[in-house]
Design goal:
elongated; mainly alpha
């Protein structure tokens, strides 16, 4: 799936999603579609996010406020992971001595 989806297409793509729930998710800010000429459009990542949201809501019976908090925490986790990967990639470009020094300092702070 590489193209953006319309409201109808995203509802069809996510089995447990209803138009009412999609509107709520947009209103509380856990889904942020782009605005197309004919209305909101959803990126492929929105489809995966909506599948996760629906699964969390159904399996754990989360209220909107709790769902908002859980998705915020997941977003923070993904951001931290991406930052750590970028830092690792930056360290990998350094000379061996620098990499070894960074690794030793990291191990020291982690108690290893």
């Amino acid at each position: 799936m590489s193209e953006n989806l319309t409201v109808t297409e995203i509802i069809d793509a996510v089995a447990a999603l209803t138009a009412e729930r999609l509107t709520t998710y947009i209103e509380i800010g856990i889904i942020m579609p782009i605005q197309g000429e004919a209305g909101p459009l959803f990126a492929p990542v929105d489809c995966a996010r909506l599948q996760l949201i629906c699964e969390l809501e159904q399996s754990h019976e989360l209220a909107d406020e709790a769902l908002e908090m859980v998705m915020s925490l997941i977003d923070q986790l993904y951001t931290a992971r991406a930052d750590l990967q970028a830092l690792g990639a930056a360290v990998d470009t350094q000379p061996v001595e620098v990499r070894e020094s960074v690794l030793a300092a990291w191990r020291s702070r982690r108690g290893r």
